[in-house]
């Protein structure tokens, strides 16, 4: 932080960037942001950043560090952020969402960011216009939620389950049984991994770009089973119906492989924005 300037009670939370068509303000008249604040547009050289004033005590570096482990607070902020982006996306050719908790000291800092990244934002808007992000998650069936063996890729037991082992009559017999059980589990995990990869490959043919993310922890998501695919797909809007139909068809066949397919979207292209502040520290702290 710049120690020569007085502490601020408010910061500007930045939500998204879009082209200045003059319509952004009207779409946001009834929308509130992450702190229940009104949202307005900051314009600079043909681009718009949507911002709202938020308490510095919550959103400065110290405040965020204290709240990063507060899942309820993070969920509240994420929902507010999404609410603004959704409102901005209603009728806009393209909206570039910014990273959660991107904040600036003042409007001058927001304008500097727009000016310094003008070319990158323009290129991203050109590339992503007319496209939407769809999310697909594949989970194992609830009964397969236990942990996999150490070596094979994550996935659930599927199809027929191994028979209960008979009681071992010797140490050698016990080791043979354990080896057979492990081999059966590994084969089951391989089968599920192949099924999940097949679904991803089929959907990728309908998308222009894809992003793969680490599996989600079922303890945090509340979903039964294990997450074996967590992917985002960039799809031209005209291909949206074909994409959702493909997901529905694959989801209908997935249970026979012990899988469950979840589709979300369409969203603004969160996963496919490049060259914007979400790839850098969220604070304008070093700029006076």
UniProtKB/TrEMBL annotation:
It is found in: Gas vesicle. GO terms for biological process: gas vesicle organization. The keyword Ribosomal protein does not apply. Residues 141-171 are annotated as: Disordered. Residues 149-159 have a biased composition (Pro residues). Pfam families: GvpL_GvpF. This is GvpL/GvpF family gas vesicle protein. It comes from Streptomyces telluris. The lineage of its organism: Bacteria, Bacillati, Actinomycetota, Actinomycetes, Kitasatosporales.
């Amino acid at each position: 932080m710049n120690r020569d300037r007085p502490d601020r009670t408010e910061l500007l939370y930045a939500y998204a960037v879009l082209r200045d068509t003059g319509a952004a303000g009207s779409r946001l008249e009834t929308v509130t942001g992450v702190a229940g604040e009104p949202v307005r547009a900051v314009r600079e050289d043909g681009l718009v950043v949507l911002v709202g004033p938020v308490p510095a005590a919550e959103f400065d570096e110290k405040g965020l560090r204290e709240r990063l482990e507060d899942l309820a607070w993070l969920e509240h902020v994420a929902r507010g952020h999404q609410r603004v982006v959704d409102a901005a996306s209603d009728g806009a050719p393209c909206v570039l969402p910014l990273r959660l908790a991107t904040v600036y000291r003042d409007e001058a800092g927001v304008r500097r960011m727009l000016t310094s990244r003008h070319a990158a934002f323009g290129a991203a808007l050109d590339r992503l216009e007319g496209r939407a992000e769809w999310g697909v998650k594949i989970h194992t069936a609830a009964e397969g939620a236990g942990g996999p063996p150490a070596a094979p890729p994550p996935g659930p037991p599927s199809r027929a389950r191994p028979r209960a082992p008979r009681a071992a009559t010797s140490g050698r017999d016990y080791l043979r049984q354990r080896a057979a059980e492990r081999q059966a589990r590994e084969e089951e995990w391989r089968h599920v991994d192949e099924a999940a990869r097949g679904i991803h490959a089929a959907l990728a043919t309908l998308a222009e770009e894809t992003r793969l993310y680490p599996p989600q922890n079922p303890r945090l998501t509340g979903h039964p089973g294990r997450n074996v695919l967590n992917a985002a797909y960039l799809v031209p809007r005209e291909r949206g119906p074909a994409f959702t139909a493909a997901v529905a068809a694959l989801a209908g066949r997935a249970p026979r492989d012990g899988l469950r397919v979840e589709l979300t979207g369409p969203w603004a292209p969160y996963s496919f924005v490049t060259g914007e502040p979400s790839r850098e520290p969220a604070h304008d702290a070093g700029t006076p």
